[in-house]
């Protein structure tokens, strides 16, 4: 009886999935037709597809918002998909986007290797494609726009070395190890620190770019290390989590804290003197820049093969000059 | 001989717990300090409260995968209400009520339409996460309110409030399971649902209530989590359902239902928390941490299945 019920459910589920699959391509078709009939007589609206790796993280939400704002200014139609950090989902997203008669496709890959297949699919359809934030390890892309994560790690390392006068105990809180950004920021940071033999990294732990996890991890590290002079968190969310732990432990004035990304709450923390620095890799800019590049490509202008946006150190001194929007 | 084994069996969670504490104390000087122990238990409280609800649900042979998403959603709603300057006497009950509602929806699908709880709560997990993202637009909701801050960060007589709340929840659940007919019905349903039904136990009502409690405790956990960070994270609670289930199983409650208890769950949650804490204290590479955690879960369950064949009576 129970087994029968279970197999019935499995059957219903697979049928539902099958139907959903059909429904997906069906709606793609109708949109395609809609696009055709709307396009020629009215204004020629550029249609841009943006395949995001995730929208479950403030950084990438801001990328999307920057892109949307710029697209609105230029009167472009922007179609955004969310792969929920799943490379398989992203391939399906790109396939669905390619069904919709795009003029240009922008991809923020969930995984640099896995995205190559999706890029190749766009190449086959002759739709111009480029990547932002993370690169594609295959296929033909027109350009890549992003920040240099190694350089950003370098900046953080140099800042801490200078703040400590080349001597002290340092904690590194890492992102999701296994992603390029986490790996490269950590690499850059350790490169910079390695130049100073008197600076010791006393703890090196991952907190998955998550504020809650960073708070727990930092609480534990604070327990184990009575002496800590500086903390580098590989993004601001984690820096803010670490800040909560440091503040609760009453060690705010002893510890130099630097994050990365320059999100608004982190800037507030710097203004109020709770955090010393962050590194501006403003995601909103990245989104805007992506659409501006799409404009250039559509007009037939040449674009650089690789565009590295500036990462800048933000401290109390220059905080009011830094533009993040 | 069998008597000794039965004793080991009865207190197996405690034995694993003690062994782990001992090992942790030897491996790290910082572990056995009052500060660190309070720190670990406070960190554990969020998972443990959810695991308390999960224990009841697993005891009736159900499962609840939606707890993490419900935590995120109720946390976001609570933060939203505080930002809108509603007083805490409104915010807290409303938040708990929304959690209860989610639990009741789970229970309704399970009892009224006979859908397995795995499927129902999986669906609700996805829906509640989506609702959270819609509500927060993907950004954390930051709050500032000193009274609210006290819930997650305050201390009473030196003991952090989250620990007191957690202990109160476990004491209440212990009493419910041991001393009320509601608690005995839960075991009866988990042991043999059909027999329970035939002997006149209102099976559906009990099940509905159990899922309701699960949702309510998720919301309670959300209040503590949000207060600790003073911001509601759209990603809050991702994967917490697995930690909670692991705590329940390590604590000796059977996934098949009807066997186990709330005290084991508390120690199960503590074991998971101490593992995290010690691995951090010892600065073990993150790559090895999940392997170590998984191995301990396997070990605990292995010991459990080996001993569960020995009759306690």
The percent range for strand residues of chain B is under 5%
Order of helices and strands of chain B: HHHHHHEHEEHHHHEHHH
- Overall mean confidence score, pLDDT of chain B: 90
Individual helix count of chain A: 10
In which order are the strands of the major sheet of chain A placed? 2-1-3-4-5-11
Q: Can you count the beta strands of chain B?
A: 4
Task: Specify the structural class of chain A.
Answer: alpha/beta
How many structural domains in the coordinates of chain B? 1
The total count of strands of chain A amounts to 12
Question: What characterizes the major β-sheet of chain A?
Answer: 6 strands, parallel
Give the % helix of chain B.
over 70%
Provide the CATH topology of the largest domain in chain A.
Rossmann fold
Oligomer, anyone? heterodimer
- Give the amount of beta strand of chain A, in percent: 15-25%
What sort of overall outline of chain A do the alpha carbons produce when their principal axes are compared? elongated
Q: Which chains share the greatest interface?
A: A-B, 34 and 37 residues
Named at the architecture level, the CATH assignment of chain B is Orthogonal Bundle
Task: State mean pLDDT of chain A (0 to 100 scale).
Answer: 85
- Given as residue ranges, the uncertain stretches of chain A (5+ residues, pLDDT < 50) are 1-6, 11-42
Work out the count of structural domains of chain A: 2
Compact description:
By secondary structure, chain A is α/β, with parallel strands linked by helices.
Describe this structure in words.
The complex is a heterodimer of chains A (about 325) and B (about 325). With about 325 residues, chain A is α/β, with parallel strands linked by helices. A 6-stranded parallel beta sheet of chain A has the order 2-1-3-4-5-11, with helices on both faces. A 4-stranded parallel beta sheet of chain A has the order 7-6-8-9, with helices on both faces. A two-stranded antiparallel sheet of chain A has the order 10-12. Chain A contains 10 helices and 12 strands. Chain A is elongated and about 60 Å long. Chain A folds into 2 domains: about 45-140 and about 285-310, Rossmann fold, CATH 3.40.50; about 150-280, Rossmann fold, CATH 3.40.50.2300. Helix content of chain A is about 50%, strand content about 20%. Chain B has one domain (about 25-305): ABC transporter involved in vitamin B12 uptake, BtuC, CATH 1.10.3470. The mean pLDDT of chain B is about 90. Chain B has helices spanning about 1-10, 10-25, 35-60, 65-85, 90-110, 115-135, 145-155, 160-180, 180-190, 195-200, 205-230, 240-250, 260-280, 285-310; strands at about 140, 155, 160, 230. The longest helix of chain B has 27 residues, at about 205-230. With about 325 residues, chain B is mostly helical. Chain B has a two-stranded antiparallel sheet with strand order 1-4. At the A-B interface, α1, α2, β7, α7 and α8 of A face α3, α11, α13 and α14 of B.
């Amino acid at each position: 009886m129970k087994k029968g019920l279970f197999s019935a459910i499995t059957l219903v589920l697979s049928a539902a999935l099958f139907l959903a699959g059909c429904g997906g391509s069906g709606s793609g078709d109708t949109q395609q037709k809609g696009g055709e009939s709307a396009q020629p007589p009215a204004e020629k609206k550029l249609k841009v597809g943006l395949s995001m790796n995730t929208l479950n993280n403030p950084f990438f939400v801001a990328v999307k918002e920057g892109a949307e704002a710029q697209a609105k200014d230029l009167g472009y139609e922007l179609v955004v998909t969310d792969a929920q950090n799943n490379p398989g989902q992203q391939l399906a997203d790109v396939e669905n986007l390619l069904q919709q008669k795009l003029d240009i496709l922008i991809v923020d890959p969930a995984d640099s290797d896995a995205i190559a297949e999706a890029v190749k699919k766009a190449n086959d359809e002759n739709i111009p494609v480029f990547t932002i934030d993370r690169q594609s390890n295959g296929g033909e892309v027109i350009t890549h726009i992003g920040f240099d994560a190694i350089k950003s790690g370098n900046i953080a390392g140099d800042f801490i070395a200078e703040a400590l006068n080349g001597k002290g105990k340092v904690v590194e809180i890492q992102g999701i190890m296994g992603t390029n950004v986490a790996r490269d920021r950590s690499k850059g940071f350790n490169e910079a620190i390695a130049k100073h033999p008197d600076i010791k990294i006393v703890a090196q732990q991952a907190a998955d770019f998550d504020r809650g996890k960073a708070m727990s991890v930092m609480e534990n590290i604070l327990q184990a290390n009575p002496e800590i002079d500086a903390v580098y968190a590989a993004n601001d969310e984690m820096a803010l989590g670490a800040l909560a732990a440091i503040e609760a432990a009453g060690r705010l004035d002893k510890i130099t804290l630097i994050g990365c990304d320059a999100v608004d709450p982190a800037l507030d923390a710097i203004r109020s003197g709770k955090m010393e620095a962050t590194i501006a890799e403003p995601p909103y800019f990245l989104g805007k820049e992506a659409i501006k590049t799409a404009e250039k490509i559509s007009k037939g202008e040449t674009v650089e093969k690789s565009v590295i946006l500036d990462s800048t150190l933000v401290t109390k001194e220059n905080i009011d000059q830094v533009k993040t929007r | 001989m069998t008597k000794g084994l039965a004793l080991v069996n009865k207190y197996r969670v405690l034995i694993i717990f003690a062994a782990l504490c001992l090992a942790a104390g030897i491996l790290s000087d910082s572990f056995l300090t009052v500060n660190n122990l309070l720190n670990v238990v406070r960190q554990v409280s969020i998972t443990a409260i959810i695991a308390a609800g999960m224990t009841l649900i697993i005891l009736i042979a159900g499962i609840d995968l939606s707890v993490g998403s419900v935590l995120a959603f109720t946390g976001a709603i609570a933060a939203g209400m505080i930002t809108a300057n509603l007083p805490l006497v409104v915010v807290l009950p409303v938040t708990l009520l929304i959690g209860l509602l989610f639990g009741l929806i789970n229970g309704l699908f399970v009892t009224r339409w006979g859908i397995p709880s795995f499927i129902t709560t999986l669906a609700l997990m996805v829906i509640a996460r989506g609702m959270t993202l819609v509500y927060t637009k993907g950004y954390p909701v930051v709050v500032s309110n000193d009274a609210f801050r006290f819930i997650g960060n305050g201390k009473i007589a030196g003991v952090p409030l989250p620990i007191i709340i957690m202990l109160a929840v476990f004491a209440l659940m212990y009493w419910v399971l041991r001393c009320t007919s509601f608690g005995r019905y839960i075991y009866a349903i988990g042991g043999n649902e059909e027999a329970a039904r035939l002997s006149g136990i209102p099976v559906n009502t009990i099940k509905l209530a159990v899922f309701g409690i699960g949702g309510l405790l998720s919301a309670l956990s959300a209040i503590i989590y949000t207060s600790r960070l003073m911001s509601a994270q759209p990603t809050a609670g991702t994967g917490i359902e697995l930690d909670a289930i692991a705590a329940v199983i390590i604590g000796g409650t059977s996934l098949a239902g009807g066997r186990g208890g709330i005290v084991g769950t508390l120690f199960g949650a503590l074991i998971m928390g101490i593992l995290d804490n010690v691995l951090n204290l010892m600065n073990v590479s993150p790559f090895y941490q999940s392997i170590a955690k998984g191995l301990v879960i396997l070990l605990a369950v292995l010991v459990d299945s080996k001993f569960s064949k020995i009759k306690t009576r």
